[in-house]
Each structure stands twice: as structure tokens, then as C-alpha cells.
Amino acid sequence: METLFIIGFMGAGKTTVGRELGQRLSMNVVDTDEMIEKACKKSISSIFKEEGEAAFRQYEQRVLQTLAWPSTIVTTGGGIIITEANRKFMKNNGIVIFLHSDPQVVLERTAEDTTRPLLNEDRERQVTLLLNQRLPLYLEADYTVNTSFKSVDTIVD
Ligand code: S3P
């Protein structure tokens, strides 16, 4: 089995679905944000705060380029698709699955979360704006699965 790249907006369920899918298919699961945090020895929010988003995007690209592993599910940060080279890399090295969630569901799922640097003020506006900007890029994926109002098991099925 080749590499499966799971993409989608914050709160779409990429990490949860990726882990469950990994168990079902007996595949390894790696997460780009976790790898960046390990490599930098700090949290994503600290990287944003101390080094800025541009630096984070460079780490993200560098980490992704190391991840064309066979039989592996790669769960990604919501903004991985902003960088054209990342979209090309995923397309050329595996199957790209977009987990799509309605803005309302994203807002509910991220309501209590203070760890996402891009969602710190005026959440509703931020989510709508970013989702609209990114949607065409997410839709370049090989498959789209709507995750709104569905159980993890159903999404994985
Ligand atoms: C980001 C999403 C986050 C993380 C970073 C930037 C984004 O990951 O990579 O805060 O630009 O959408 P999750 O999608 O796992 O929250």
C-alpha cells in the first residue's frame, strides 16, 4: 500500500480518523505537526509566536518531503495545501484524501481550543474566510469525504 495523505481544515477530524484508519488497515500513522514539534522541541503555537507563520510553513514543507513512506498514513496540518510544492508532493507520492467539514461543525469542534494560532480572534470570520480561500486547493485531492455529523467509524468506512 502506498502513502495516504489526509488533508482538511482544522477540526475536520484528520488526526482521529487517521489513527482509526491506521488501525483498520494496519498502516503506520505519522502527523506532520507532531513531527515539527518534535524536531523544533516546541509547540506549534510557540513556533507561530516566536518565529512566525512563514517559518512554520518552511518546517512543514521540509517535514512533508521526508514522508513518502510505504504503508503509511500521513495526517497533516490544515494549511499544508497552501504551499504548491506540498500539493504536488502529495499527489506524486500517494493518495490524497480530503476530509471536508462544514464551517459550523469546525466552529463547534474548535470552540474550546486555544492551541490553534490561526483561530484566536473572531473565529467565525476566520473560519469562513480561510475555508473559502482554501477550498479549491483541498478539492484538488483524489478523494473527498464529508465528515460533518458522521461518526468516526462511518468516516473510516
Ligand atoms: C494550521 C492548522 C494546524 C497547524 C497550524 C496551522 C492551518 O493543524 O498546522 O496551527 O493553517 O490550518 P490542524 O489542522 O491539525 O489544527
* Series of H and E elements: EHEHHHEHEHHEH
Q: In the CATH hierarchy, what is the class? A: Alpha Beta
What is the domain total for the residues?
Answer: 1
CATH superfamily: P-loop containing nucleotide triphosphate hydrolases
Mean pLDDT across all amino acids: 94
Helix/strand class: alpha/beta
> Which second-level CATH architecture applies?
3-Layer(aba) Sandwich
Unreliable stretches (pLDDT < 50, length at least 5) are: none
CATH topology: Rossmann fold
Q: Counting H and I runs of at least 4 residues, what is the number of helices?
A: 8
Strand order of the largest sheet: 2-3-1-4-5
Strand content: 15-25%
Number of strands: 5
Bin the helical content: 40-55%
Give a structural overview.
By secondary structure, this protein is α/β, with parallel strands linked by helices. The protein has one domain (3-156): P-loop containing nucleotide triphosphate hydrolases (Rossmann fold, 3-Layer(aba) Sandwich), CATH 3.40.50. The chain has helices at residues 14-25, 32-40, 44-51, 53-64, 84-93, 103-110, 123-138, 152-156; strands at residues 3-8, 28-31, 72-75, 94-100, 143-146. The chain has a 5-stranded parallel beta sheet, with helices on both faces. α2 (32-40) crosses α4 and α3 (44-51) packs across α4. The model has no long low-confidence stretch (mean pLDDT 94). The structure holds shikimate-3-phosphate. The site of shikimate-3-phosphate (S3P) has 10 residues, from loops.
